[in-house]
Amino acid sequence: MSAAPAHRPRVAVSRTGLPGDGVERLTARFDVVDWTGTQPPSPDQLARLAKGCEGLLVLGSDRVDAALLDAAGPDLRVVALASMGYDGVDVAAAAQRGVVVTHTPDVLADTTADVAMALILMSRRRLPAAMDALRRGEWGAFRMDAFLGLDVQGATLGLIGYGQIARALARRAAGFGMRVQHHHPRRREDDELSRWVPFDELLRTSDVVSVHTPLTKETEGLIGAVELAVMKPTATLVNTGRGGVVDEEALLTALRRGELHSAGLDVMTAEPRTDPSDPLFTEPHLVVLPHVGSATEATRSAMVNLAARNLEAVLAGHPALTPIPGTTGLPTHGRRQHTTR
Ligand code: DGY
């Protein structure tokens, strides 16, 4: 009598050609179906791909809602995000269905903090404007008064949120001679890098305000017209977290009126965006990047690999390595365990 073929769980991956070898590892153990379209899948397309899957590996920009979880079906046990932010996930819907959700902390903080530091320097020193002028053939003479920016050394950096990326930025800022302060609503502690200050004081006294909170109901629109008005007219606002934390209309107005020196954004409320005449792209005192905070080969590979390891662990009946905060990383349902190691 021949042995029954080993069960190979079905796993969906929401993009093809992801960096790292995580997906290859998954392919050795599971029936992997990946989305091969040139554009990201629509919610319907992702739902069809997910049907019958026990695990999903998705990106932070994919919506993981009740409809997707239900489309996957009752065998779904884990959604592994290759992303630190999990604002695209309906966490309650996943918990109700006993599905583990994992994310990728630890592996991207330094890389993203590099981009935050770059945005501080680019915005305060007006470097993109200088480069644009050069490319237009306007560098006819060395001028003492051209592209004058504001110094970073001696300036005060105010961090809104004080997680891994904010602390990595604090370390960099110290090397640039900046003073660092932070606000976190619950953890009211100083440390060797930074001192805790109330939110209002941070806005009032910082030369650079950098946003590092996750996007939640509480933080949506946290930096609006009122908060921008409290900031110094010589201040710079930087956001490498999530676009929804900053009210973009209010930011554009403050920049146009000269109520704020400059801003640097790696994230926007609506992403992606392709209109070259988008006011966010044409405002001279605003530096924008297309969500590249974690975009190095090594870091993006590490994100995908960690997501794959989380998925493997849960399907093998082990707790996830990095479940989203406040969860155990163990599914509360499931039929079988698969030995993968
Ligand atoms: C993250 O990890 O949250 C980045 O924004 C990429 O999704």
- Give helix and strand order, one letter per element, not per position: EHEHEHEHEHHEHEEHEHEHEHEH
Based on DSSP secondary structure assignment, what is the total number of beta strands? 12
Largest sheet: 7 strands, parallel
Please identify, by name, the CATH architecture of the largest domain: 3-Layer(aba) Sandwich
Continuous helix count? 12
What is bound: which ligands? (2R)-2,3-dihydroxypropanoic acid
Shape: elongated
Q: Provide the helix percentage.
A: 25-40%
In short:
The chain has twelve helices and twelve strands.
Question: How is the topology of this model organized?
Answer:
Elements: E1 10-13, H1 22-29, E2 31-34, H2 43-50, E3 55-59, H3 66-72, E4 78-82, H4 91-96, E5 100-102, H5 109-124, H6 127-135, E6 156-160, H7 164-175, E7 179-183, E8 195-196, H8 199-205, E9 208-211, H9 225-230, E10 236-239, H10 248-256, E11 262-265, H11 279-282, E12 286-288, H12 297-315
Parallel strand pairs: 1-2, 1-3, 3-4, 4-5, 6-7, 6-9, 7-8, 9-10, 10-11, 11-12
Helix pairs in contact: 1-12, 2-3, 5-7
(2R)-2,3-dihydroxypropanoic acid binds next to loops.
